[in-house]
Design goal:
With about 475 residues, the protein is α/β, with parallel strands linked by helices. The protein folds into two domains: about 270 residues, Rossmann fold, CATH 3.40.50; about 160 residues, Rossmann fold (3-Layer(aba) Sandwich). It is about 45% helix and about 15% strand. It is built from 17 helices and 14 strands. The protein has an eight-stranded mixed sheet, sandwiched between helices. Helix 14 packs across helix 16.
Length: about 475
């Protein structure tokens, strides 16, 4: 947690100790308590000790990468001892909790179920009003990148160094490439790196889609520098974990010799499950964090290019847009259009998704796997999406999803689906079946565990 003044504070977990003894120990009522304690301590020592570095506290698991990070951390803790170091992204906390302090306490309680210790660090570069643009400008002028500098500070380096000095870690896991600058703090400990996206590819794609010359130049330069950084640091990690085969191939184009392993994004199929609510006729829904530029661009495109003509052809159609921190420009645009509602943050999006007829996902930018697609599939929803929105997911067009690349295709497919309950239901059933068999976090978490164990084993010095 963080005390007044922003000083990082390390705290041992006081929640339910997740290091439960093996079944044999739990059942052995006749063994003296002292022997049980020795067995338990021996068991805990046999676990691999992982230091997990995160660019945001992986809680609450309600959006994007937080869902992946939380679920994989939870699954990792079933077999390993996990120490968490996470940076505090205050907007994520204040969206959900009344204050940053209350949010940190809630995160500590929840993650204490899985972590043996937690350290929450402030992001020093973003603590003043112009932190973000000044960080970007400084990176541009010094030959660095915003992506690899916004999390870096001397106090954070010192805090992480102290944690590494305190314990004998078997592995360091960096949950994004923005944390790679901390890799040099303990070069002797093997490390793995997650690529939620291939950041250089995402920036170069963003440059292609940028609306003005200055933005295009900036994002293209950021992308080129990121690509050079990805190439430079690749050899420092025992394994690079991508979210899809497509991202693995993109990374291999940059670093052909990198040890790349796919651990796909997943979904909590028990949480995201339809309760069979009555479908609102003619209803469309989109859910996504609304300060993430691909989501904003997708909805601006939908409202400008698709909605007016769709409304003419299907007068009863409605659209709900849910997600935290929508920009005021999008809110005002929605208010000027009939039957469009921007909800902002919702504590539970499942009722809104469950009652919608069609889930739309016109995302045409960004990278990685779009977790919102998997959530909609798990909720047994018929989805109409741009092909880019489905990258990294093993979908079959016409079987478990409907793809649309142009505004006219979106209009035609949505109109057709709203008139055909049987086809919608068939697609929805196939979508649910896909996530149950391929994208459950229990199975994905087991593979993640094995990946980290193998990385530590391969990199460990011979005795």
């Amino acid at each position: 947690m963080v005390e007044p003044g922003g000083r990082a504070c390390r705290q041992r977990s006081r929640g339910r100790n997740k290091y439960r003894a093996p079944p044999l120990i739990r059942r052995s009522g006749g063994i003296p308590a002292g022997h049980l304690l020795c067995l338990r301590e021996s068991y805990i020592r046999s676990l691999m000790k992982v230091l997990w570095l995160a660019h945001a506290i992986p809680y609450p698991p309600r959006a994007g990468f937080l869902l992946r990070s939380y679920n994989l951390l939870r699954e990792l803790s079933r077999r390993q001892q996990v120490e968490l170091v996470a940076f505090i992204q205050e907007p994520w906390l204040t969206t959900t909790f009344p204050s940053v302090r209350e949010g940190l306490e809630a995160c500590r309680r929840a993650l204490g179920e899985y972590c043996s210790s937690m350290t929450f660090l402030p992001i020093d570069r973003l603590r003043h009003r112009w932190g973000k643009p000044s960080t970007g400008l400084r990176a541009l002028l010094t030959g660095s990148t915003y992506t690899t500098s916004w999390l870096v500070s001397a106090p954070a380096r010192a805090a992480i160094q102290r944690i590494l000095a305190d314990g004998h870690h078997d592995l360091i896991h960096c949950d994004t490439i923005g944390l790679a600058p901390y890799r040099d703090l303990s070069a002797s400990v093997p490390a793995t790196l997650t690529h939620h996206n291939i950041e250089s590819h995402m920036m170069l794609r963003r440059a292609d889609n940028a609306g003005n010359f200055v933005a295009r130049r900036y994002f293209r330069e950021e992308g080129r520098r990121l690509e050079a950084f990805e190439r430079e640091v690749a050899g420092r990690f025992a394994a690079h974990i991508t979210c899809s085969d497509l991202d693995r191939e993109r990374l291999r184009e940059i670093v052909p010799d990198a040890n790349t392993i796919v651990v796909p994004n997943g979904v909590d199929c028990e949480y995201f499950a339809s309760e069979g609510r009555p479908v609102r006729p003619g209803s469309l829904v989109f859910v996504g964090t609304m300060n993430w530029y691909p989501n904003v661009q997708a909805m601006v495109y939908f409202l400008r290019e698709i909605w007016p003509r769709l409304k003419t052809r299907v007068p009863a159609v409605t659209l709900d847009i849910a997600g935290s921190n929508p920009p005021e420009s999008l809110v005002q645009m929605a208010r000027s259009l009939p039957d469009v509602t921007v909800h902002g943050y919702l504590p539970d999006v499942r009722p809104l998704i469950d009652s919608a007829a069609v889930y739309v996902c016109p995302i045409r930018d960004g990278g990685g796997t779009k977790l919102k697609i998997l959530d909609a599939f798990a909720m047994k929803k018929c989805v109409v999406a741009h092909p880019i929105a489905c990258e990294g997911i093993d979908v079959t067009a016409g079987k478990d999803i409907v793809l649309a690349s142009t505004s006219e295709e979106f209009i035609h497919e949505i109109e057709s689906l709203l008139q055909d309950d049987g086809r919608r239901n068939e697609l929805a059933r196939a979508a649910r079946s896909l996530v149950e068999t391929r994208y459950s976090y229990r199975e994905i978490g087991a593979r993640f565990n094995e990946t980290l164990e193998e990385a530590a084993r391969q990199a460990a010095p011979a005795h």
